[in-house]
Amino acid sequence: MHPEIRVGILSSPRISFSLKGNFRLAGSDKLLCGDCRLSLKGDTAILSCQSESRELSLPIVLKPVETDNTVFTLKKVIIGIDFHWQRAEDQTFKGSLSFIKEGDKLRALNIIDIEDYLSSVISSEMSASSSPELLKAHAVISRSWLLAQIQKGSELKTRGNYHSTVKTADGYLKWYDREEHEGFDVCADDHCQRYQGISRASSEAVKEAIKASVGVVLSYKAKICDARFSKCCGGVTESFENVWEPTAHPYLTKVVDAPAGSKEATLNLTRQTEAERWIRNKQDSYCNVADSRIINEVLNGYDRETSDFYRWQTTLTQEKIQGLLDKKLGLNVGGVLELVPIKRGVSGRIISLRIVGTKSSITIGKELEIRKALSESHLYSSAFVVETGQKLEGLPQSFTLIGAGWGHGVGLCQIGAAVMAAKGFDYKAILNHYFAGAKLEKLY
């Protein structure tokens, strides 16, 4: 038997969904099918299916009577939350449908076999047409990450002292991880792993990749690896502790995304001068790829809307940056005079940034907080250098950010791994490249 997991899909005061086939309401003999709607009423919910309505206590579980061809569709699921590709779409799922109360909203959950879940994750995170070796590698790291998070969640409940914000003398460091999810194992969006239902799991290649690696995880010293991945590391991967909680994972540290012996291996990107030289130039990295065939194989349609992922540039006006700081962080530092990198990680990503203003100054981090502060959605990454524009009465009128990579940069680089697969590396070699010292282990 494979483990079952609970995936948080959609949060709203009212949720519309459709049941294809019969679903049994847990705790009763009632069978439901067709179009339905659930709305919150205090601590209970009103379930309307066809022309019948009933008040039910939460949580609610709807189980498929038959596993084959019995599915449910959730309407207007938001994907890419807070990112530049955010949109709503209807999504169809296998398994059971559950609803819990989450504050003043309902949360729809999918209870599903972990291997069925992974079939969708692999196709949601990348194109199902990706090479077999890349699909196998991603199946292993996605399975590893999920099981490690479930284990971590259990440990946090026992420990009870986890925090994700640290105050400093002149600011704060904040990071975002799955500990925010208390009513389920994992969410369905980029905050965790993309999971977009069976519409993304139809590829035979994906099913074969799952089958070939069923139950296999990465482990380090007999513990499942907290395996991470991002779209494009920009040439060097980042250390775990520079992005999330300050706990070192030896298998999640600096990896030069190039063949062994590359000259870039000696670079110290924590130094401002070396980081600036690195970011301003394109290196001979696996993820520095212009081959549209490889890119199209790896990226889904909405991801291909982002084409400048290896090196990028964006300009913020003085008015814009002040507005972003107020909107995203509630900060009013007055006119922004400087953006000063205080500390960089091993990939050149800024993990502590000083914002100097005419009224006040503050130091913020870690990388995602910086990316949130300087963009309507998220900057591609925090690996950037700053060019200050012309000044008017001593106040810069703009700041141009020149950056590298797309995402946090920890663990497997999806674009780089795709290139490795295209060059003939098998999935074991790919995993060994990005997760040094980790081993493959079959759990079930």
Mind sketching the topology for me?
Layout (H helix, E strand, L loop, with lengths): L3 E9 L1 E12 L5 E11 L2 E6 L2 E6 L2 E5 L6 E9 L7 E7 L2 E7 L2 E9 H12 L6 H28 L5 E4 L2 E4 L11 E2 L16 H9 L3 E5 L2 E2 L4 E2 L41 H8 L12 H7 L12 E7 H12 L6 E9 L5 E8 L3 E5 L1 H7 L10 E5 L2 E2 L2 E2 L1 E7 L7 E2 H9 L4 H8 L4 E4 L2
Parallel strand pairs: 1-13, 12-20, 16-25
Antiparallel strand pairs: 1-10, 2-3, 2-6, 2-7, 3-4, 4-5, 6-9, 7-8, 9-10, 11-12, 14-15, 14-26, 17-24, 18-19, 19-20, 21-24, 22-23
Helix pairs in contact: 1-2, 2-3, 2-9, 5-8
How would you describe this structure to a colleague?
This protein is α+β, with helices and mostly antiparallel strands. The protein is built from nine helices and 26 strands. It has a domain at 311-404. It is globular. It starts with a strand and ends with a strand.
Provide the structure class.
Answer: alpha+beta
Ends: how far apart? 8 Å
Largest sheet: 11 strands, mixed
Q: Report the sheet-strand fraction.
A: 25-35%
Radius of gyration: 23 Å
The low-pLDDT segments are: none
Total DSSP helices: 9
Structure summary:
This protein is an alpha+beta fold and 444 residues long. It has helices spanning 114-125, 132-159, 204-212, 272-279, 292-298, 318-329, 367-373, 414-422, 427-434; strands spanning 4-12, 14-25, 31-41, 44-49, 52-57, 60-64, 71-79, 87-93, 96-102, 105-113, 165-168, 171-174, 186-187, 216-220, 223-224, 229-230, 311-317, 336-344, 350-357, 361-365, 384-388, 391-392, 395-396, 398-404, 412-413, 439-442. The longest helix is centred in the N-terminal third of the chain and has 28 residues, at 132-159.
